[in-house]
Amino acid sequence: MVKLVSHKSGKIAALIQSLEGREFDAHYLGYFHCFNQQLFFEAHEVLEELWLPQRGQTNDLFFKGLIQLAGAFVHIQKNRRQPAIALFKLARLNLGKYPGIYESLDTLEVQNLISAWLERLETEEKFRTAALESIRWPKLVISEAQPSVKP
To answer: Which is higher by pLDDT, 144 or 27?
Structure first.
């Protein structure tokens, strides 16, 4: 298990510290914690600290895909459709390199989630002008027993 101290912010460092000593790396758990609170930029930052020293290793593209997924939602929050679409496509490509259940995450469900958001962004006119408050943000769930993604 890689132990890193967050250099991004005190808030992220405190989150990481609160998640230490669990089954997964605190940065990995922190990603899901932030993502599920729509703190997509913070999710990106937390997981980046785990990913950077592991580039070129087994989890490289998996972590990169999750970072890209969070980044796509950052762009949605900033009403930047085209960059969101580009990152969703990269995330789907990178996560598609891993088996259906990987690191207790159902990557097939995440890819389905990405495809659904891509379709919304590319086809729904009302989504293009929708207020952010009306968006139903996804939640990612990791679980060894029943990994799933909630819409």
So the answer is: 27
